[in-house]
Amino acid sequence: MSLQSTLGRFPIDARTKDACGLPFACVAQPFAPFTEILSRDGKCSVPSRHSEEYECDATQLGRCQECFGYISRYCYFDYRSWTCALCGSNNPIKKGTRYHNVQNRTKLPELQSGFVDLVCEKGNHDEDEGERQGGGEVDRTPAAAFVALVDATGTEEQLEIAKAGVAAGLEALPPNAKFGIASFEGDSIALFDFRGTVPSSASIPLGVPAAAASPSAQHDDAEDLGPSALGEVVPLGWFLADATAAHKEAATSALDAIAPLASAEIDPRRNLLAEALACVVGYVSGGPQGDDDVDEGEEGAGGRSRAAEAGVACSRVACFLHGPAPAGSRSRNLKDGRGRRQGFVSPTEGFWEDLGSFASRRGVTVDLYATAASASSAEPFDLRSMRRLPELTGGRLRLYPSPGESNAPQDVFAALKEPVALNATLRMRTSNEFDVSGVFGGLVEDPRYPQLYHLAACGPHACFAFDFKFTGSGFSREPELKPTVQLAFRYEVFAPVHGKAEAEGEDKGEGREYAMQRRLRVYTKQFPVAKSALDLYEGADAHATICVLVHKLARVVEDQGFQEARALCEDWLINLLGEYNLSLNRRLLDQGGAVENPDLDFVECKALQPLLPLVYGLLRGTSLNASVFAQDPDRWSFLRSCFASLPPKDLSCALYPQLSTFSSNRGYRRVPLSWRHLNENEGVIYMADALFVVVVYYTREAQQTQEWPPPHGGLIRREIEDLGMARSVQPRAVFLREGVEDGRVFEELLLDEPAKVGTGSSADFGYDEWRAELAKEVADFLASPP
Description:
This protein is of the alpha+beta class.
């Protein structure tokens, strides 16, 4: 669990916050590795998991009677009472609790560290959190399940990539997991059965309108075809096979049997793919999508209903798309309640949003891997509608322009290999002086408990943003009364039944028995108070700031369009630079002087120096570019979906690529992304990291002195491997030689050069020209400050 605030010090009041021009917000990674927590917060420690105090039941953790916040190291203790660090209420210490013994109290992990991760015993019902804890033992299934749906309407090259992706997923499965393989055959679904020595398949026809295939369940006169029909032909217990070596070998044979359809059979049948995916989701969840028989207690613990008892408690469906999946007559029009422009939101978005909500309630995570037939393919996938499905279920959306540029096998392997928190709930509590005013990311608020949010799945890189507002006059000037933030995260994890192991599932020894375990993470953090804007600048976080800015502008794009979002972004930056220079030169201005050379690069504030290039990259990128959306809506939607969940460091790399230069075995960072910089550094190798793609560029001089291609085990290869291991996005490596391969991929990453396609911003003319225009705007701001 990691927490990054845009302001390392919180403003003492709303006036000070407005004077600094920076957002008052934070970004959180609920399932971040322990090492991430320790590196960011020196007041956190992770006790040994063999400690008896650490493995206590979460019900033994003290809670405030007033605000229901958890006890922490920041609470004030008296002999037989403690004062809540959040609301200031006094709570008695009852006899028999773990806090009654004064001598042992200081040894408790929750009072030594700001972070704890505890087991939730089975049957514990927490009314305030709106959930019934699932317990340390699994309730319905002993294993996780990976289900692959392969679209057989693609070309042979597309199918080969999909088959390689499924094979990679099977290799990444943890011990005693289960898997199933299905294929979409145009007018039917083929389900494979691996019980025998030779795999067999059963085909179930599609095409009949079915209530089961519609998440809105409004077709009362339709026949219940989807999940029921699949279960009648192949029961779910037959379809899901153990991930043993024998079954994996049989799966390879089954994948080889999937052949592409004839081109004449594809187009008329594509509109059934949406129905096929909906059927598979209902099939693995254990019930038709129209069944709303929900047990309120279980609903809060991840949304699983009584209808899902026969399904799999933890399942992941990976759909390999090779063309559009129109929802057809099952689409519904979205109301324009937020003023969204007609045509920006596809009318089929309602279908995918309903399917995502249904899958999330049943604990099913859906990944979409879309591979186009070629880079010049004219038929879009309509990802602007489909992206709601993976976003609501905690899944991944990936788009590959062609089979040759596809990184699907690596992405599938990484998705299944990394630890995942499932059926989770998240709540953020704050001290009395401020509160959460907005939430950004794939969180779904509980309808019964305000500010309680549900997550179907949450990986270690998943990130969410919270906007703050003052609820009173401000914070106390007394240093011991610091602003406090507390995150409570309840989740399930696939963990070993016997022996101790990390909650992230790091111990995956062969032969171990794994099951679902319910856990609780609590992270409490305090922030110092800043009394002036200059103090706020010194503790600011540029990467967290750009992350919050991207989330806010995304909503502006949906509500008011690209032009308004771009104008708001530029106005915000001008205001920030203006307020920064006013604060920096306050004494000069009070004496009647004028700021002749404003500081545009935050020279006097090291913490904010990365911000200007990041905002420039945002203006030059796809997020605020209407022409990109008009020409390639799938690419825009793919990037929009990824940006919604990327942690700040990865998002910064996606907005403004990092350029490295290599010479022999030495590498060092360079910031400018321009040909002028490259021409000043002859005879080296350049590596541009843009998160999704890493381009290694050999100059002519480097081709004569350096080995081509970069040797395995060398510095460049090792760095690319390290980048893939540290991220949820597996970058595609491209190796180019000056004068030999087409260098346009590398040139597109040199953002400091003038843009080839305009966005409507002065950033289109290049970084130096944009900065010069920015200087004029800031000078006007300082000449007549508000």
